[in-house]
Amino acid sequence: MDTFGAKQTQTKCPPQRSRRQLEMDTLRKQKRKLKKQIRAASSEGTNGLLVIWRQLKARHSALSKAESARKKRSRKRKNQERFIRDSFTLQDSSSNNPSLEL
């Protein structure tokens, strides 16, 4: 609409995956392929494949820990902002309603 004051709706695009999340996806696929190769390999070839699989697993777990720490920080920051923003409304509603007093 070209009228003054009319809001235009915007379509939300899905959130982009971070570099860490993309790398975790590729590591997960590589680990799956290696597990299939380990099952199909002879007993001599399994040791080398297991070493590679353990390296991939260590890298994936390190990335996973970092990603969960990032999400925890983000969640904590959002909760703090929400508390600060909504604390005044919560305080006003409790002062108006005596049944909500502590």
TrEMBL record:
> Basic residues bias: where?
70-79
Q: Which domain of life is it from?
A: Eukaryota
Q: Nucleotidyltransferase among the record's keywords?
A: yes
From start to end residue, where is composition biased (Polar residues)?
1-13, 88-102
Instruction: Spell out the residue ranges making up region: Disordered.
Output: 1-21, 62-102
Keyword Nucleotidyltransferase carried by entry:
yes
GO: which molecular function terms?
A: RNA-directed DNA polymerase activity
Q: What keywords are assigned to this protein?
A: Nucleotidyltransferase, RNA-directed DNA polymerase, Transferase
The protein, known as: Reverse transcriptase
Annotated organism of origin: Plakobranchus ocellatus
